[in-house]
Design a protein that fits this description.
The complex is a heterodimer of chains A (487) and B (308).
Chain A: H1 4-18, H2 25-36, H3 43-54, H4 58-83, H5 85-96, H6 99-110, H7 112-116, H8 126-139, H9 142-160, H10 166-177, H11 199-221, H12 232-235, H13 245-273, H14 277-284, E1 305-311, H15 317-333, E2 337-342, E3 346-348, H16 350-355, H17 359-369, H18 381-392, E4 400-405, H19 417-426, E5 429-434, H20 448-451, E6 456-459, H21 463-473, H22 483-486
Parallel strand pairs in A: 1-2, 1-4, 4-5, 5-6
Antiparallel strand pairs in A: 2-3
Helix pairs in contact in A: 2-3, 4-11, 6-9, 8-9, 9-10, 9-11, 10-11, 13-15, 13-21, 18-19
Chain B: H1 2-8, H2 13-22, H3 29-41, E1 45-48, H4 55-66, E2 69-74, H5 81-84, E3 86-88, H6 90-105, H7 112-120, E4 126-128, H8 130-136, E5 141-146, H9 153-165, E6 167-170, E7 174-177, E8 183-188, H10 196-200, E9 203-206, H11 212-222, H12 228-243, H13 252-265, H14 272-278, H15 286-295
Parallel strand pairs in B: 1-8, 1-9, 2-5, 5-8
Antiparallel strand pairs in B: 3-4, 6-7
Helix pairs in contact in B: 2-3, 2-4, 6-7, 11-12, 11-13
The chains are: A alpha/beta (487), B alpha/beta (308).
Chain lengths: 487, 308
Amino acid sequence: MPGGFAGQLVVFSEELRGEGMAVGTSELLDATVALGAIGWGSRDDVRETLAATLAKSPEDRHVFDLVFDRFFFRAAEAEAVLRNATDADVAAALADEQAGEGDAEQGGEGVDEGADATGESGELDLDAIRDAIAQAIASGAHAQMADLAALAIGSVGGAVTDTGVVGVDVQRIRRALDLRPDPDPQAPEDDPRRKGLPREGIREFEAALRRELERRRIARLGELPPARPLNQMDRALPSAAGQSLADIHRVVRQLKRRLNTQGHELRGQRRRTQVDLRATMRASLQTGGVPVVIKERAVRPRRPELFVLCDVSTSVTSASLFFLSVLHALHDAFRKMRSFVFVERISEVTELFEREREFEKVSLAIGRDAGVADVTGYTDYGRVWREFLEQTEDDLHGRSTVIVLGDARTNGRDPADAAFARIAERAGRTFWLNPEPALYWDYGDSVISRYAPFCEVHECWTADQLEDFVAALTGQAPPPDGPLRRR
Amino acid sequence: MMRRIVSTVPRTVDDLAAALRGVGYLPGQRTALVSHLAISLDKPVLVEGPAGVGKTELAKALAKVLDRDLVRLQCYEGLDEAKALYEWNYRKQLLRIQARSTVADAGGDPDALEAVQDDVFGEEFLLQRPLMRAIASERPVVLLIDEIDKTDQEFEAMLLELLSDFQITIPELGRVEATSQPVVLLTSNNSRELTEALKRRCLYLWLDYPELEHELAIVRQHVPELSATFTRKLVEVVAEIRGLDLKKPPSIAESVDWARALLLLGADDLDQDVFRDTLSVIVKHRTDLDLVAERVGLRLPQASASAD
């Protein structure tokens, strides 16, 4: 790297800029001066100092942490590749071949449970590792994550890993370890999995897994893979209470504007394409049968009739706020619209939305008297479909659009995809917005693929994805059997 | 006097952390580090975070540690230069002019009128407001600009000169430079995105709700009379409440208040009755109250069960 330390810092800030952070030269100078004011002994101090001078918002801070890890991880690995031979080989040999022994060592450093796991003849006891990892995730033991990740790769490794794609390996290991964010009533009393593991914890563990897998891969290949930009999922902030309401409102305002303007645009385009033959003929009588004036078919502005079903159960708590605001915005834009919220059963909230113009009041009222949760508070999709059909079967027709907002997690109950198919069949178009990243679909009790054949499924948990969906909804690309053909 | 102050400035991050602890503020590692940078680099710090995590307390604690006066500017919508920087003392100016003109009428010096003009725009007639006071002070101070996000962008722009060069330009007087270098803290509850220009001039510190152990230590520090196990339970409940989707999650200050209230009531365990009676100390919205009572309250032991 050119220019010694200052050069490194510039390269680092270039990477930050590459990820969309505005890092000014003056801030770089600040960072350099600030580093002079602290000791260099602790990696954390250096990180915090750089963060205080370069990252000026919680979002930036999050990106900063990711880039910092990536940058210095790569820097360290590059150094290792450069020096090559000895230590890299030793590490690789330790990690790959003698998984048992090597990992027992590593586990012993941070985790008592991990050490117990190697009790019988150096064999790794998968269940014990599972417990240890679940425990660490539940209690947020950051320091142990790296060790446990190595342990996990060692134990589950041979069987499921080495597809060559780190992301896939991570997910396979996660599944093998049975790490799920939703509660597992079968788990024993004191097991952290009984209440469900915190999503952030799982994400952190996955990051540790990813780092460890990448490290091993680099050690094996002896070279660094090209730098990978952060993806959407990395960027998303772990959802904290109350922080994102303003964001949501901003997106929804955009959405509202788009919904309003896009409709007009569309009408203009469509009108040109359709000629009303009969009217043209009739007009041509005035000019002796020569069609001088071409009459176009008047196309009525197509305002779809919307039926929106919104999951408000606890598994989508953070997302349901987002969804309710979307619902609210849709209500402003579409006149013919009926909204339902559901958990175990369904409740129509159309009137509520029409009565209340303020979003806060609406969400309050829904929380108070929608009465959708019965006993357990877990979503029952089968019952929801049946009740929905009962209430709306007569009103559903080819021009209606059904939108489902939910995570398709049935909590082990019957998904009743036949009933859903019937809804989709009667309605013109059916969309499903899933607030979970596509990576988590069909893991655990998610049955999204059972519903997927009958509807368009959109992954929707960021503003961008919502915009994609709006484009699909307002019909820039009309579906094959869309309402157009019917008229 | 000055020498003594300089000698008490903590030299390292750990010293500063210890000193802050000494005055009753328990800083996280990040907080101590950024405060240290602010003092040693003379950079303003922008402190952001939810309400009630100790942003303002940090400024007070720093003032105590550094043995400086705290000059506080509470921001609000519509705050202008006259309230924040300086104002001319019109009445006094008017009096002076009248006094002079009476003298002139009585056959005094005819040049006096011109002299009056220079005279009434002297420092004597300047009313110093917090920002001005902070930089014109003989002794260095800690300047706290509280809730900067409540002001409008114009005011922010006005601050830029102060924050980067520690000087203020007054049209009638010229440039007023700082006689002493203040430690500046700006706090924001993130209700509005601050301008890039302002952020660029500041160090950034994000204060969040503390980890469980950290908060436990804070509450113990403020209410040492409450038993350790009870305090731990209380803090755990507060952490759980923050996890709910509330309008206004309880702040640290409110956990401390709660602990005080429980102490006052002589409660010795957190059961459903006590919880319901004192809930309003930590949760301040009607709907939040319902939600918390339902989700958290019902899981606590019954009042009768607590007897054994």
